[in-house]
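DM from R.C. (forwarded with permission)

"hey, sorry to bug you on a friday — could you get me a structure for this? deadline for the figure draft is monday and I only need the backbone to look sensible"
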Amino acid sequence: MNRDRKGVNGNKHKRDHHDKPKKGIHNGKTKESIDITLPYSFIPFAKQFYFPYTYECLPKHNELKGFSGSISYTITPKADLYTETRVNKDGQHFLSGSSVRGLVRSNVEILSASYPEFIDRTQMLYRKLAGGKRYLQILTNNDDSTEQNKKQKRPKDTEKEIQVGYLQKQGNEYYVVPAKKFRNGKNFTSIKEHTLYQMNLKRNYSLLYKIEFLNEINEIQEKIDKLTFDIKKYRQCLDQEVKQKIEDLFLYQFSFYDLRKALKKIKHRDKVKEIENKINEIEKFKIKLYDSLKSLLNSVDLGIDDKDDFCSKYAERWKLKAEIDLKYTQQRNNRSFKPYQIPILLKTTANGNIMKLSSDYNNDEILLKGCLFNSTNASSKRSHYVIREPDLTVEPIHVPQSVINAYENMRKKMRINADNPSIKKEIELFYNLFNDSPRWKQKEINNYSDQPVIFYRIKEVENSEKVKVDIIGRTPYFKVPYDYQIDELIGEKDKGRIDYATALFGYVNEEINDEGNANKNEENDRLQSFKSRVRFGPIDIIGSPIFKEPAPLLLPSPSASAEAMYLKQDQPKLVTYEKTVTKGYQKKPELNGYKYYHVLKNKVDYTPKKDTENIESKRKVLEPQGIQLKGKIHFTNLTKEEIGLLLLGVDVSLFHKSDLFKQVFADEDLNECYDLLGGGKPYGYGKVKIKVDSLNLETRGNDFHSLMLSKEEKKEGTQLKEYINSFISEMNGTEYFENVHLVHYLQSKKVFQEVKGVKHYNWSNMKKKQVGYDKNERLISPARHLNKD
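My reply, with the result:
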C-alpha cells in the first residue's frame, strides 16, 4: 500500500512521475494532458474476488443453523434529501426500505471483495465518422489486425457490407426481412441530393439543404459530368494496371480527407477572405495533382495522343469536386428536416446505378419497387438512400433482445436538436422502433412502406446454420460495439462459486433453466435462484418533516465516450476501449473501479436550461433540520461473519471495533465519514450519517414456550466487536484491507477537498455549449485524492 500506516490523512507524499502532466496527440499537435477532478471518482476493484460458497453449500432456508434477527439503525441527515417519501395510513411520512437497500448492498459488495454485479453491462456502442479508421473497419468487418485484411489496401464498400431490410413484428418478437439487392451487389445505394432534386420527384420528403444551394451545386456538377464524359474516352486507352495506379493516387495522396485537414488550418477573421484562401489552397492541390498525373503517365506508353489534356481535365474535375466539398462545409443544413420513408419506383443501369426515380405507379418504364429514405440531417450528410422492396424468398432474421436493449439504451441518450416541438416529436417516434405504435398493426410485409427501414449486420448462431441480427440502426453508419466491453474488462465470474453479496441478497440465474426437468429438486432450485436472507423494513421519519418545492436537476448518464475518466490513463496516449491496429500498441485497458460521487461540503446550485428541461429530474426536497430516520434490517440464517459484514455495510464507524483495523489505521477518524442517500448526489444532496443502534438476535430454546415465542437478545457497543473481528479474520486479516482497497473506500465517505493545482468541474460550471470533455483532459487517479497538497 503506497501510504504510511496512519490512515488517509497521514504523511504527505511527493508527486511521482504519474502526477506529471502527460503528453498526447491533440489535433495533430503534441499537447500536454490536463488533470481534472469531477463530481465523481472511483474505488478500485478488489485485487482478488472472494467466493466463500458453492451453490451446493449455500445455507438452506428451511434449516436455521445460523443467526436470525434484525439490525436497528438511525440515519441523521446532514443535507437536503432528494428522495421520494411515502405516507402511511396514520399520516406519518416514511421512506421505502429500498432507499437504503441499494446503498448497503453496494457497501457490502465492495467490503467483501464480491464480484461487481450492479455495473451497467449494456453493450457499449459508438460512431466515429471523422478520422475513425477503426470504426470503419468494425463497421465493414474489415479488421486490419487479421493477416488477410492487412493485405487489402482499399477500404470495403459500405453499401455492399452493411445490410438493409424492413423491421417486422411477429407476436412479441422482432425480425428483419432483407431488402432485395441491386445488380451491382449493393444492399442499398446513395443518391446526391442535388441529383435527386433534378429528378422532379414528387416532393413528399424533406430536403437537407435549400433549393437555391442545390441549384448552385448542380451547375458545378454539370461541368463535372462534361469532364467525366471526356475522361472516360481517355480511360478506354488505359490498361488495368495504370487505372489502378491512378485510383491509388487519388485514394492515398489526394483524398478529400487530407484536403479537409489542410483547409481546416486556414482561419481568418474575414470569412470572405478565408474562403478565398481556401480556394487558393485547392488550386495548389490541383497543380500538384496535375504534376503527379503527368509524371505517372509519362513513365508508360499509353497510346494517348494528348496526355496533357487528359491530366488537365482529371485535375480540373478534382478541383470542382473539392469546391463542392468546401461549399457544403460553409452551408447550414435544414433545421426543419424530418426523417422520412416513402415508397418509390426506380430504374437502374446495367451496373445497378440509379437512372430514374418516380412516384408515379402508372409509369410503365419503371419496373423496380423500393423506398426513398433518410434518417438524419447530420452536418456532413449530402445524400439520400434508395432501398429496394423486401425479398420474400429469404427467411426473416431474428433480432435478439440484447440487440434491442443496446439500441434502446442509445436511443434514450439521443439529444434531438429541433426547434419545432412537432418535428421533435416526429423524430422521437421515428427512432422509437420497439413499441406498440400503430405501425405494427400492419402484419403483411407486402405493404412494406409501413414497415420501418433498418440497417443491420448479422452473425452466425452458435451450433446452428441460422444467423441473427448483431447490430441495428436507422442509418448505415450505425453505432458499433467497442472492442472491449465491460464484462471482459472486469473479468469472468467464477460460475461455480458464490460471493458474500450474492449469498446475502439472493440471485436469479437466468442462464440456467430447468423448467422441463422432472427430477427438479432443491439443489437445482438453488442453481436457478436463491431467496435473499435480508429484508429492509420501512424507514420512519421521526420529527416534523419540512418539504421544499420540487427541484429540477440534470443528472447526466455515464457515457462510454468518457474513456479519459473511466479507464486508467497510465500512458501518454489516450487509453480507449478500442484495439490499436496501427503503430503504438495499446495494452488491454483497465477500468478505474466502482464509481462514487463525492461527499460535498455545500450544495452546488443548478440553473435549469431550456434545452435540457425535458430530461431534468424533479423531486420534492426534504430538509434535514429536526428529523431523524429510523429503520430495521431483518435477517435470517446468517453466519457470524456475515453479520459482521452487514454491520460494516450499514455503519462504517464500526471498523473501530476491530483491533486489526486499529493496527493499520491508527489515526483514522471514522466520525468524518458519511454516506449519500437518494438522488442529486453530484449537487450535494443526500449527505447522511448512519449509525447502528443495536443488533437484535432471536433466541430459541427447546422448551414449548421458546418454540412458540421468539425472544430477542440485544447487543450494542462493544458487544458488536466479535462479529466485526470474525468477518475481518475470515477475510485474511490485515491483508484484507489491501485486497479491497479499504483506504479508497474510506476516502469515498469523506468530504471532498479540491486538489491544489487541479481544475475541478461540477455540472454547473461546465461551459454553456460544452459537450463532454476536452480530448487532453484526464481524471486524476484515485490515489491522487489521498495525497492532496
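R.C.: lifesaver. Residues 1-30, 145-153, 512-523, 701-709 have pLDDT under 50 and may be disordered.
me: no worries. The chain has 23 helices and 34 strands.
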